[in-house]
């Protein structure tokens, strides 16, 4: 295990013990009038800059899971080719989509999840949590297949002290499920809302929406306080009270209201661009997640990248904290039967391009 990866895993351990505010992922789901399901999410990590890659995985690629003892876990051969977005090393795919249009992603889930312990006598069925996305994208084309496949494996931590995660899986039909492993049991939820953040569990977040039943889009009417009539300050006052902090519960509520009030777009591409705009609201500055003066100065943003999948047209979009230009990979242009397994950095140059306007 390389040194930087080990440091990364040690950092995730702190999430289980200190509630360190360095993790935050926000996911939304939109529908275009063309009938497409568009999944979108942010990836946050405020502790340091992560190495990030896109991974091309062909069909019939032989892969094996890591375990606490090394690369000696579950062996599997991919049925479907896919593109994955990975952190720190190519095995750790945190978001991706396969050639069938199945999208998958992991989100941090500290202090609420509990996997089965690693059993070295059952290594051949052991699958590292950070490799679940890779396994699912290579093995499955529908969420029912995801359920069947994951019930046959033993999902584990590489280091049992590190934070747990939960997962979101979306098929082109629009059906989406979330998997949380609590008290060593697998719990699948039909996520008809399409929003996902971090801890607590998904059902808790749904219940918490009861606290915001009074919120509505638009402008509040003027209100009389006895003889005094007060007009609203301006547009959007119907959402006065929407939480603005970056905790997981507040982001879930905010993402829900931004998603359900967003006007439906005509085309898939318009919907993708709308999703990027919505997720602009969840870019997290590094400084607010650390005590004053302790934030690392070399991390441009806690939101290290944003990824969006068009599950109908099999287009994977992303932008990063180094380059806000939107980039796109068309899975239908890839010959997954004959391409090679490969990885490439998300940013060839870690510098935001600036277009100079020439005035004559």
Topology (elements, then pairings):
Elements: H1 3-17, E1 27-31, E2 37-44, E3 52-57, E4 62-64, E5 75-77, E6 82-87, E7 93-98, E8 103-108, E9 126-128, H2 132-139, H3 143-150, E10 154-156, E11 165-170, E12 176-182, E13 185-190, H4 202-208, E14 223-225, E15 228-230, H5 248-261, H6 268-280, E16 303-310, E17 315-320, E18 327-330, E19 342-345
Parallel strand pairs: 9-10
Antiparallel strand pairs: 1-2, 2-16, 3-6, 3-19, 4-5, 6-7, 7-8, 8-11, 11-12, 12-13, 14-15, 16-17, 17-18
3D architecture notes:
The protein has 360 residues and is α+β, with helices and mostly antiparallel strands. It has one domain (3-207, 265-345): 4-Layer Sandwich (Penicillin V Acylase, Chain A). Helix content is 18%, strand content 27%. It has helices at 3-17, 132-139, 143-150, 202-208, 248-261, 268-280; strands at 27-31, 37-44, 52-57, 62-64, 75-77, 82-87, 93-98, 103-108, 126-128, 154-156, 165-170, 176-182, 185-190, 223-225, 228-230, 303-310, 315-320, 327-330, 342-345. An eight-stranded antiparallel sheet has the order 13-12-11-8-7-6-3-19, with helices on one face. A five-stranded antiparallel sheet has the order 1-2-16-17-18. β7 and β8 form a beta hairpin. It is globular. Mean pLDDT is 92; it is low at 1-7 and 13-21.
